[in-house]
Design goal:
105 residues, 3 strands
Length: 105
């Protein structure tokens, strides 16, 4: 069996390391749902990225007993770095606008 070389179009190439990844999320105060969502993301799609930064807008509506602290605990469990915004009033349009302005990758 011959070794692959640069003239062989089927040559095996070393994959470049994956870059830092920003993940943008808008959310409401529903920590259990957020945890389920991030478990799926991080165990499958995001597992390939060694450095993950979360940008999240958490609107102040949702489960009556849920807190911002519970939401941030979920975020930090799944991401290396968390940038968050917790506005006084909910607004999906403002949440999306703010979150996408924070993206670096």
């Amino acid at each position: 069996m011959s070794q692959p070389d640069s003239h062989n179009k089927h040559a095996i190439r070393q994959a470049a390391p994956l870059p830092h990844l920003d993940v943008v999320t808008t959310a409401t105060l529903r920590p259990e749902l957020l945890d389920i969502t991030y478990l799926s993301f991080t165990s499958k799609l995001l597992a390939k990225f060694p450095s993950r930064r979360l940008i999240i807008n958490i609107d102040p509506i949702g489960e009556p007993r849920a807190t911002l602290e519970q939401m941030l605990e979920v975020c930090h469990r799944h991401f290396d770095q968390v940038i968050y915004r917790y506005p006084d009033t909910p607004s999906f349009a403002r949440a999306v606008h703010w979150a996408w302005q924070q993206v670096e990758s």
